Amino acid sequence: MLETILIVPCYNEARRFQPPLFIDFVDRHPDCGFLLVNDGSRDQTRDLLQQVAAARPKSCFALSLERNQGKAEAVRQGMLAAREHKPAFAGFWDADLATPLDTVPEFIALLKQRPELRLVMGSRVRLLGRQVERRASRHYVGRCLATIISLILGLPVYDTQCGAKLFRCDHAWEQAFAEPFISRWLFDVEILARYQQAARKALLPPLERCIYESPLQTWHEIGQSHLGLKDGPRVLLALARIWWTY
């Protein structure tokens, strides 16, 4: 039985997806596995994911969605499928491996050492001695967005949008992914809002105690962001909908 399963959402990732890195990781960490979700790709992504699953059938699984539904739904469908394996921990990781897979054992160790934690989130903090490489424009846009999100949630969260997150598989985790998200790209914010709802119902301790942001040692910007300055009104509208809903 796999202790940890990572959902890897993939949309047209044939050029960037690196099967050897995923296969090597599960060979070195036999308690970990991947659930690779093809989000209706139009290139050879589906074939690549199936190749990985065929190479390591006990630890790698491929799920293919017939049409593109966005990262939020791809991750959610992956989480629903992961429940069948009854892992202790489940998370999601960006297919481009901007956050290296060697960070996964660090997240697992945090959840094991601190049983009160329900979620460990990667945080792209630019500090001396760390290799967090990001264009200045995206960094400052991200900081503005993070400030607005922090105010909306009422939490001192630094980086909601990093694509490296690992959850403890409990009732709050199941509830967080039970229903579709209202946003395709800001679903990370919705996850925190759903955890806040669980805390208000006394299903979780206050989030300041059970969610941990782990500053990444290494993060490399790969490709273009799905959100830019021109998307400002759309982002603000999505955040307003999240605030109103939750």
Spatial order of the strands forming the largest sheet: 3-2-1-4-7-5-8
Percent range for β-strand residues? 15-25%
Report helical residue fraction: 40-55%
Mean pLDDT: 92
Low-confidence segments, ≥5 residues, pLDDT <50? none
Largest sheet: 7 strands, mixed
Q: From the helix content, strand content and strand pairing, which structural class follows?
A: alpha/beta
**Cα-atom Rg, whole angstroms?**
17 Å
Q: What is the count of distinct domains?
A: 2
Number of helical segments with 4 or more residues: 9
- Spatial shape: globular
Question: What is the β-strand count?
Answer: 9
Give the oligomer, counting copies of the same chain as homo and different chains as hetero.
Answer: single chain
Helix and strand succession? EHEHEHEHEEHEHHHEEH
Q: What's the N-to-C terminus distance?
A: 35 Å
Written account of the structure:
- The chain is an alpha/beta fold and 246 residues long.
- It has two domains: 1-95, Alpha-Beta Complex (Spore Coat Polysaccharide Biosynthesis Protein SpsA, Chain A); 98-246, no CATH class.
- Helices cover 40% and strands 19% of the residues.
- The chain is built from nine helices and nine strands.
- The protein has helices at 19-28, 45-55, 71-82, 104-113, 136-153, 171-176, 187-200, 207-210, 232-245, and strands at residues 4-10, 32-39, 60-65, 89-93, 119-123, 131-133, 164-168, 211-215, 218-220.
- The strands form two sheets. The protein has a seven-stranded mixed beta sheet, with helices on both faces.
- α2 (45-55) links the parallel β2 and β3 (60-65).
- α1 runs parallel beside α2.
- It is globular and about 45 Å long.
